[in-house]
């Protein structure tokens, strides 16, 4: 079952891990999408804001991500560019540690879990690795995150996926709507609009 086109906008509230809210806007860009959004949160008593402008191609591979974080101590922007074949540049410098990654995953964002499920287009029961360029909210450091998705059965027009990120010893079942946006990310976020 393929996903429908994303809505013009979506919003999530954070749960348990932090207090906050995320809003994202989707617009067509060539055969892909431009996704602009912002997350505001308080985590470990520290407030922060992370804004993003992500471009994905027609296969939902990340091609560019501009991420800006703001803290009480200042602000920082970093730009990730990808060729769609798993090669990345960070602030115009080659980043071979990210070779093979096709997605960006922002620690601050529930929305970025949309990218791999669209790109992978898994059939029920199928599993796939989806390593990502992982951007930390606290300082915008970027690392490789090994993660995997396994599509479960449909739940009406919704799809469920088992998700695992070994580096964090974390796994859960994610619920997506008909357009492939996360509805429920247990302990992290819930879709509000």
Helix proportion of residues, in percent?
under 10%
Unreliable parts: none
Specify the oligomeric state.
single chain
Strand segment count? 17
Largest sheet: 14 strands, antiparallel
How would you sum up this structure in a few lines?
InterPro entries: Glycolipid-bd_prot_put. 4% of the residues lie in helices and 56% in strands.
Question: Could you explain the architecture of this structure?
Answer:
It comes from Prauserella cavernicola. InterPro entries: Glycolipid-bd_prot_put (IPR009467). By secondary structure, the protein is mainly beta. The protein has one domain. Helices cover 4% and strands 56% of the residues. The protein contains 1 helix and 17 strands. The protein has one helix at 114-120; strands at residues 9-14, 19-29, 32-43, 46-56, 62-71, 74-82, 88-90, 93-94, 103-106, 127-129, 132-135, 142-145, 148-155, 158-165, 170-176, 182-185, 189-191. The strands form 2 sheets. It has a 14-stranded antiparallel beta sheet with strand order 8-7-6-5-4-3-2-1-17-16-15-14-13-10, covered by helices on one side. It has a 3-stranded mixed beta sheet with strand order 9-11-12, with no helix packed on it. A hairpin with a 4-residue loop joins strand 14 and strand 15. The longest helix is centred in the middle third of the chain and has 7 residues, at 114-120. The protein is globular, with a radius of gyration of 16 Å. The model has no long low-confidence stretch (mean pLDDT 96).
């Amino acid at each position: 079952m393929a996903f429908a086109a994303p809505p013009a906008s979506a919003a999530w509230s954070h749960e348990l891990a932090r207090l906050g809210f995320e809003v994202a806007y989707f617009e067509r860009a060539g055969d892909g999408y431009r996704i602009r959004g912002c997350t505001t949160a308080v985590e470990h008593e520290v407030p922060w804001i992370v804004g993003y402008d992500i471009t994905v191609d027609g296969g939902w591979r990340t091609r560019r991500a501009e991420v800006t974080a703001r803290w009480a101590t200042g602000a920082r922007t970093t730009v990730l560019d990808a060729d769609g074949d798993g090669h990345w540049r960070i602030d115009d410098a080659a980043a071979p540690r990210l070779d093979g990654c096709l997605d960006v995953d922002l620690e601050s964002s529930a929305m970025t879990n949309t990218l791999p499920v669209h790109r992978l287009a898994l059939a029920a029961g199928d599993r796939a690795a989806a390593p990502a360029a992982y951007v930390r909210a606290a300082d915008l450091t970027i690392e490789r995150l090994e993660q995997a998705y396994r599509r479960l059965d449909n739940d009406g027009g919704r799809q469920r996926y088992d998700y695992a990120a070994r580096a964090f010893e974390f796994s859960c079942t994610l619920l997506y709507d008909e357009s492939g946006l996360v509805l429920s990310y247990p302990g992290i976020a819930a879709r509000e609009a």
